[in-house]
Design a protein that fits this description.
The chain has 65 residues and is mainly α. It has a single domain, classed as Rossmann fold (3-Layer(aba) Sandwich), CATH 3.40.50. The chain contains 3 helices and 2 strands. Strands 1-2 form a two-stranded parallel sheet. The chain starts with 5 loop residues before the first strand and ends in a 7-residue tail after the last helix.
Length: 65
Amino acid sequence: GFQPCLLTNTWVDDSSWRWTSAALQEQLRRRFHPVLESCRIGVTKPDPGAFQRALEILGTRPEEV
């Protein structure tokens, strides 16, 4: 089967408009599992470590994707 995953380059938003990005993230979380945010996993795209971390969380190997 397929397991969708969303890997995003996001940051901690402390602006007065942070509710809009929070609302978008909530919508994405309803459609994708897991949603991996760079600010939470500690590595950003295109660093290969971001993709390696996503594979670990999904429990898969590179040749399976």
